[in-house]
Amino acid sequence: MTDYTIVRADDVRDHYAGTTVPGEFRRLPPALHAEQVAVTLIRVPPHSDFEQGTGHYHEEQEEVYIVARGTLTMRFGDEIERVEAGSAVRVAPQTPRSHSA
Fold it and tell me: CA dist 69 to 33, 42, 85, Å?
């Protein structure tokens, strides 16, 4: 393995392809040969719910969301925030989170 890896996100498997979930979900760590960082590209169509129910959380891992364009409505436990393009959001482990566009 080299000291760097370049991957086109669109070349990575879309886990939502063929499902009823709107948008795309592409896990990049395997393609990047990453061992200690999780990076996922999520594209959410406007006006679509990304996750229903209570959302998800991680036991130990923080999660960072980068809003590249548009506005993302995010829920953290019982709090709801609108996050605009150009923003980054860190979510602590064990904090339930979900979002919609």
Answer: 27, 12, 5
Whether residue 101 contacts residue 46, with contact meaning beta carbons closer than 8 Å, is answered with yes
- Global confidence as pTM: 0.71
Residues 70-100 have pLDDT tens digits of 898 888 888 999 999 888 888 888 989 888 8
- Closest C-alpha to 24, from 37, 39, 34, 14: 14
End-to-end CA distance of the chain: 37
Q: Give residues with Cβ within 8 angstroms of 16, minimum separation 6.
A: 22, 23, 24, 25
